[in-house]
Amino acid sequence: MRRLLKVTAMTGLLTLLRMASGFVIAKIVALYIGPSGMAMLGQIQNLVSALNGIINAPAGSVIVRYTAENQAQGFDACAPWWRASVQWILLFCGIFIPLGLLAAEPLAARLLDNPDQAWIIRITVLLLPFAASGTLINSVINGQQQYRRYVRLGMLSLLISSSVMVCMILYSNLEGALMAAAAQAGLIGLVMLVVSMHQPWFKLHYWWGETTNEQRKKIGGYILMAVTSAMTVPLSLMAVRNILITQVGWEAAGQWQAVWKISEAYLGVITIALGTYYLPRLSSLTGVTAIKKEINHTALFILPI
């Protein structure tokens, strides 16, 4: 219980930083571009979330789980799972990057009412491998239950990406904001790669080499669940925003986007804490009794009665 409180406090700081960053960016977008810019920014951010949800599916909770389960046996025991994840990511990149490049113009026309903005979608899909790399590294760190490092790297990558985003908005207004939204996840992944290069688990032979069909199959078993959960919210938000744009225009859709960002921020205090602590903790436990005990303790903390 004490550890959950510590994780909640640390991830709460990360969430607070995300809230502050989101509010600053939203304020700058509103001042320089207006409510319609907020709506367009929301469309691109949701598209990025949906595409990342697909590419990151083999690199998320499944890697957290199997890293947590096998870390006691050393990195060699974790490596086959990491390799299987990389193989799935490469497969998805080989499928969805060409599709995204081909569908960029109709997607831009649908989401932004301007097919000339297709270059933004092309940037998004070309940066997907970097976004997946960042998620994979985050999952490995989380699976090893290195919560301090997880939060510190989250803060560092957020500060760097947010600073770049603000500079791009100030320099290029709407186009800068859209390009920054498209590139943010890839930039975070690049930061994670650079700062993790000297970690003992960041060796090529841990990530590239032989694995088994069993590991590929178990990683694949998580993909549909991960894709469904990762795409449902972005696609539903894009659908709601499209209805608002059609019925009341871009300005009103931008105002709705601003309100949504507020609710999204404060909900992150609980969801990020549980996502960071709960899965690796349960995966590291053995036996039904220990798992039930952890679930009961956590439930009393989250929903006290």
Q: Can you walk through the features of this model?
A:
The protein is mainly α and 305 residues long. It has one domain. Helices cover 86% and strands 0% of the residues. It is built from twelve helices and no strands. It has helices at 2-32, 35-55, 61-70, 75-102, 104-112, 118-126, 128-143, 147-195, 204-207, 213-248, 250-284, 288-302. Helix 2 (35-55) runs antiparallel to helix 10 and helix 4 (75-102) packs parallel to helix 10. It is globular and about 55 Å long.
Average of per-residue pLDDT values: 80
Helical proportion, percent range? over 70%
Number of helical stretches of at least 4 residues: 12
**Topology, number of strands:** 0
What integer value in Å does the Rg equal?
Answer: 20 Å
Span between termini: 16 Å
**Which structural class best describes the helix and strand composition?**
mainly alpha
Main beta-sheet annotation: none
**SSE pattern, N- to C-terminal:** HHHHHHHHHHHH
Low-confidence region ranges: none
Shape: globular
Number of domains: 1
Q: Please report which band the strand proportion falls in: under 5%, 5-15%, 15-25%, 25-35%, 35-45% or over 45%.
A: under 5%
Defining key terms:
mainly alpha, 0% strand, 305 residues, globular, 12 helices, single chain, 86% helix
In brief:
The chain has 12 helices and no strands. It is mainly α and 305 residues long. The chain is globular.
